[in-house]
Specification:
Serine Threonine Protein Phosphatase 5, Tetratricopeptide repeat, 198 residues, mainly alpha, 12 helices, 2 domains
């Protein structure tokens, strides 16, 4: 636990090389190894090492307990989505959707976004939005997915409301979350800039 606290301190200070080293050191202890892989992946992603982050996330999904597999696969899919690697995002998010339970609407919504980005036809966007709105994940990261889905559904007012809520919550909350979600915040701001003015 002390190593994890040290990791978080380095991560929040944007000392990502040190944070990655501490997470990889924690792996040698074999205590919650999937969580240590997730931590290492966050630090590697912050360093711009997409392949390193993906390798850690694949290992996290492989060795993690069933209750966390969906999260690890979804995080891998999110990484690929942000880097416009949509086919890989679809593969990872499809696995997340298969393993998912309460967060399944989030995984299905994000999977739909990856399919749309790849040029695939996606039906039932309104239903995806409705399901995610009432899911527990709809209030956090789900606002990012809801906002982008609303753009594709031709609902700019909802898109603006959800994307602004996501940006506000992410940038005013825990520092670690703001750092980890920098890519999503930037994507949300770009989407907001394309929306018509009120």
């Amino acid at each position: 636990m002390l190593l994890r606290q040290l990791y978080l301190a380095y991560y929040e200070e944007c000392r990502f090389v040190q944070a990655a080293a501490i997470a990889e050191q924690a792996l040698t202890l074999d205590v919650l190894p999937d969580v240590a892989h997730q931590d290492a992946a966050r630090a590697k992603q912050a360093l711009g090492d997409v392949e390193g982050a993906a390798a850690h996330l694949r290992l996290a999904a492989r060795i993690g307990p069933a209750s966390r597999k969906a999260f690890h696969y979804w995080t891998l899919g999110s990484l690929f989505y942000l880097h416009h690697r949509y086919a890989e995002a679809i593969a990872a998010m499809s696995r997340a959707a298969r393993w998912g339970t309460t967060d399944k609407p989030l995984y299905h919504g994000h999977l739909a976004l990856a399919r749309i980005a790849l040029g695939q036809e996606v039906d039932g966007i309104g239903e995806l939005i409705d399901r995610l709105l009432v899911a527990p994940a709809g209030g956090g990261y789900g606002r990012f997915v809801l906002g982008l889905l609303a753009l594709h559904a031709g609902r700019p007012v909802d898109a603006r409301r959800w994307l602004e809520a996501f940006v506000d919550r992410t940038t005013s909350g825990r520092r670690a979350a703001a750092i980890a979600l920098r890519g999503e915040v930037e994507a949300a701001r770009q989407a907001l800039a394309r929306l018509p003015a009120d």
